[in-house]
Amino acid sequence: MFKGFYTAASGMLAQQRRTEMLTNNMANSNTPGYKADQSAVRTFPDLLQQTVDTYSQNGKTTKSTIGSLGTGVYMQEAIPTFAQGDITQTDLKTDIALVNINVPGDDNNTAGSIFFNIQDANGETKYTRNGNFTLDGQGYLTTGSGLYVLDENNERIQLPDDNFTVSNEGILTSSAGDAYRLGVSYTADPKSLVKEGDGLFRAEDGQALESAYTAGGVSFQLKQNFLESSNVDASRTMTDMMSAYRSFEANQKILQAYDKGMDKAANEIGKV
Fold this sequence. Notes:
Its main location: other. Belongs to the flagella basal body rod proteins family. Helices cover 22% and strands 33% of the residues. By secondary structure, the chain is of the alpha+beta class. It folds into two domains: 2-79 and 233-271, no CATH class; 82-228, no CATH class. Strands 7, 8, 11, 15, 16, 17 and 18 form a seven-stranded antiparallel beta sheet that branches. It is elongated and about 95 Å long. The mean pLDDT is 87.
């Protein structure tokens, strides 16, 4: 019976974590460039049950298989989906969207992805699909949280004002005539990236991603005055949240049933 406690409790924990992940997706359904997470739920290894019989006359031991016993489930990880979100017009010069045209993956079943290059507070290069940029007090092009947007040479971009243009090829030209090429990186395996807060990703091995401009077979465009929307499917997320809640509730009722059985075993049968 104790095994039933553990199995039901593991199901509740898995669904609780899945609900938290889905709630985070829903909260970011309007966040530009946000990539929704999907859960990977796995089962713990099954236990093989056998009986062992020993005959006293000749000491012969025999084993007979009863069957396997499940030991519960767990949410192994949350995996981002890198499908491109809708491209929406904002008419803000500091909004820039990455538009995938042909971004091959490392095999025929997956697609690669491209990202803006961003410098975090520690000077490390991170990657994002959120092109909702702005200018800080010193004229640097930054993200909404104040991180610096980098050019193709991983240098910060400083502008005299927000009266600049961005071509489809990524060339940013300021009102003073200075030209920069926005830093855009490419990976054939985006699932190898580590997701951080604020829509940022980092390379798992710490190595910089290759430039999307020189990567073979990669084609894309940059669109000024546009933003990539979140790729969260709100209706499906709500359905998945209800499913996770009902699964949690079912495991909870099983746990309560085991608890009542243990109560009777301890307080009623034990009196006999």
